[in-house]
Amino acid sequence: MQTTRRQVLVAGSALAVAGGGPALAQGPVPAPQRGGTLTVQLTSEQRVLNPAIQASTGVYVMASKIVEPLVDLDAQGEPVGVLAERWDGSADGLTHTFHLRRGVNWHDGKPFVARDVQFSAMECWKKILNYGTTLYQFLEAVETPDEHTAVFRFSKPMPQGLLLRALPDLGHVIPAHVYAGTDIRTNPANTAPIGTGPFVFKQYERGQYLIAERNPNYWRGNGQPYLDRIVWRFISDRAAASAALESGQVQFSPYSGLALSDISRLSKDARYTVSTRGNEGNTAHTVMEMNLRRAELAKVEVRRALCHALDLGFFIENFLYGYAKLGTGPIPSSSAPFYVPRAAPYPFDRAKAERMLDDAGYKRPSRGAMRFAQPLKLLPAPWGEYTVNFATFIQQSLREIGVRVEIEARDAPGFLTGVYRDHNFDLTTGWHQYRNDPAVSTTVWFRTGSPVGAPWTNQYGYDNPAMDRAIDVAATELNAMKRKADYQEFVKLAVDDVPVHCAVEHAFISVYAKRLMGSHNTPRWSSSSWHDAWLAPA
Amino acid sequence: MSPAVRAFLRSPAGLLGVALMLLVLFAALSADWFFPRDPLSLAGRPLQWPGQNPRLLLGTDNLGRDIAGFICHGARVSLLIGLVATVVAVGLGTLIGAIAGFYGGWVDDALMRVTEAFQTVPNFILLLVLVAVFGSELEVITIAIGVVGWTAPCRLVRAEFMSLRTREYVLAARGLGVRDAGLIFREILPNALPPVIVYASVVMAVAILMESALAFLGLSDPNIASWGNMIGAGRSVLRTEWYVSAIPGVAILVTVLAFSLVGQGLNDALNPRLQAV
Amino acid sequence: MKRIGVLALRRLAQSVPVLLIILIGLFLLLQLAPGDTVDALLAQMGGGDAAVAAQLRRDYGLDVSVPVQLGRYLVRLLSFDLGMSAIYGKPVASVIFERLAVTALFMSCALAFAFSAGLVLGVLAARRVNGWPDTLISTLGLVFYAIPSFWLGLMLIVLFSVKLAWLPPGGFESIGEGLTGMAHVLDVAQHLVLPILSLSLIFLAIYLRLMRASMLEVMTLDFVRTARAKGLSEGHVLRRHVLRNALLPMVTFVGLQFSTMLGGSVVVESVFSLPGLGRLAFESVVQRDLNTLLGIVLVSAVLVIVVNFIVDLLYAKLDPRIVAR
To answer: pTM (2 decimals)?
Structure first.
């Protein structure tokens, strides 16, 4: 009846090992079978199904089966053409030409042409799409010399590698003939999408489910897609979600959608695969962010001391069931093109933390008393167990070194306004998602100049001109080797100044029935099109 | 008063209630003595079953907190919130009920419409709205629970005032030139209070239940050791470590039971008609 | 009967200002909340800059002054238009309507169970007053009253869903099995057993105590003694005279407690993932969906008023004195 810690840990580490190798490649691969309905559990729903105006895994997990990007990542994590067949770029990085796939039709029967790419890029990615507004800032025009060529012209150099790694997330193409001349934000196709993908939108009942059905005219042919239908069910209660999976009503729970205790329990159940494989492209850091506007936290020694006070090994083992590892900096170890191995920068050392605070001038007034006159106010990000439990763990840990923390729990909108608009916090937890290239998703956390109130930016008032310079240099560097080296400077500054402590690195966990085949075979599989996924008979 | 006290002491419900109340009170007062550590602090590995570790009598929850210590410190929180919320509810209700009952006429009409408005909106939904608007600090929650609970005491007081305001002694005082405030607070109120005081134990029980429900939904103050908080936290390990949710629930049950029993005992003592049956 | 109708209608008319107080009060209260619908939307969208936020505020009519917003809302209400739900992207009326059926079924089952079980137990206790059944039933009543409904729900899940696997742990029906007819009814019934138990136990305890007390009180009244003296059988006296009169406070209480019960459904529906009005209320507070929340408060206030109206009529029907008057 009761699970011991040890069993759980063993299961956790076994999983970490299994995650490295291609689990599905063992033994002969059976031939795919047509038919069947795949039911997917989602914890929350995004109420927009247009990935060209909203960049979020919560959108991709549904909409990317219906709407496709120009480029996706293959099993090795290399860019592979989807709606673009091939591409070439000019040496100066100012021009990128995409040769588009021919014979592709939209779900409404109209042909897919270069004008669709032009419209998506100029009207959606550049003007509306979050992250896109920064990335495509210097995109001047998309020219369409013929129906199957789109030429992207930039006013500042855009490294080809960066563009190609950004496109899987920030490069979904929507039909110009549906959107042009309308208000894009309120176009009904945002919740009833029309795309080129393997599945056709069927029905969306908010708060309940979304259904997409097989596209019989899908351009890949060869019997793909194999599934007849995909149903996404929104089940927010985690106990109910695991019950749905165990009763066979649901075959797949992506993005750590179950309670960690259930995940660890199901990992010992032979009917399910529990793995981080297929999510390498969506690594996240669970972070502690410190507001530099608070006098004590403005001192870098204090920030470092707080980091040393956290026994992250204990946290990972006991709170995260081993499904994570120590973070080493803002670029996660899963990012092969940019990661240079380094040690976790702030190992747990309570005595050292106390000493550092003493030296910084914050001695305890008396034995066992608290160091700061006012407690630190911690706003936990309400994104689920990781961020909320981490907040409690920070509170518990800092108390041991004489720093009192008061948690103020808020719902999502209260949290976002409190942190990003009003800066009314001292500490906060969060999830920093890394999307294949630091310039896509990560440097924005450290650079100055984000508008006040824009979520997921530099909200802690961190301002280091050397950092801004390092970020700008790397973002326009065309030589891949030099870019990688440039980013090590960025990592070093980020870790030394530590406005945000990238404490724990973890991939998202997928839990799925073993009969779901052809799955989790690319680094961002949950967000990909699932054209080759199929269900073995129950 | 003495026959009432004797009647109370004859009521087994009242006596059991007092005993349970003393137990809860003891847990609350001795919390610092037996569990000097912060109840929210990490006491050991999370999810140790009760009895598994002799140092941690009732085990640890999924955040590594000592459940026994949490329960004792939680008793303080529940009693404090219950008490203050009850004072707010009864105070507000008494004031409004007294004014409505004393003046009657359009004042009564207007105040009764407001009372009805509060009664018509489900209390708990109103509480959710208040917490969403004003935040979930301890003070806010306590006052909010009081604010949603004032209507029943208000109606009680109003009814008493309406029957008392025409009594001879009141009319006599009025004839002597006593002002309205004097009439309300010095002449009528002392006589209108006893039924409200009996009812206060019910208000207290409801207040404790409401706070725990709020904490269960994750909308209470997370910096305090609230029983509902732990039940909510234990929900994610319910299938395997159900004791995390079970133990604090028993604590709530005992506390609420104590107050309802005391209320029952008071009622028996002050309502001799039922006693006679 | 006509008299009763007039009486009830007058009470109904009294509830118009009450509704107005509720609406205006709530609307003003929510203006004080940190973050509005647009902040919630942006959170859902994963961000957006100040221009996006301003555009959205215009789209949702949040860029005008508070009195104007309130005025618009009240005017629209006159045409039974509760506005659009920003989060659900459709009219609030239809969002609420979809959830209403679940809550209506859930509430009426819970109410019926609490009422009938409370009645039976109350009568049993009163007939053997101070005997062992009375002691047992009264003690149970006290314990039931003290059990937090959400905790009871969780414990029932542990016992009946996790350990015994007899009943589903949550949801309203089995989705995707395409059940129809009797199979569907049974399926829903299975899903509702635990939620009904969790919600109704506390009310069962109240009705039980009330029924016992009012039975005891009525039995001492003169007309019962007269009936007994006339040599009528005990069962007859109980049914025709005692029960009918003892029911009166119970019926009143249904009206009084209905609002509390509706509030209790918030927690229970959340424990059992029931897609009802209570859970919608909780979700829209969390998502700061102002229109939906106002709509729910309005609808639940109307429900409470309607239930009380029905209770008035029932009361008049039951109470011989009112008819005689």
So the answer is: 0.81
